[in-house]
Specification:
Elements: H1 17-26, H2 28-54, H3 63-81, H4 83-105, H5 110-125
Helix pairs in contact: 2-3, 3-4
Length: 126
Amino acid sequence: MKTLTRRPGAGAPAHGIDRMVRNVRTGHFERSLSALTAAGALVTAAEIFFEHDSASFGNKMMWIPVAMGPVGAAAGIAGFFSRRMAKTALPIASAASADYMIRMTDVYDPDGVAETVRKARLKRLA
């Protein structure tokens, strides 16, 4: 008569690092990050909108980061439902956002911009 032996860990609940490794291997971690990207993009876009609205959108370039939020959210949602979109749409949306940030950091007086941002943050905290 043949006795069945169980492998160690087979059927046992995965805890800690084992669960994390399994989630990375199966793609659950990637899907979670895609969903977090979508939520984060919407929250960030809303925050940027309210900050730029207080400045009355004095410069037309202020609309670009607001418009990039829904793009990032759409890419995140698509990445959540499709692995193919996670490999294409998310990197494209990320590259577009990074390109915009690189162009915005090429300013004439970076110290003046930093000082203005610091004053605005202090004013908001007060």
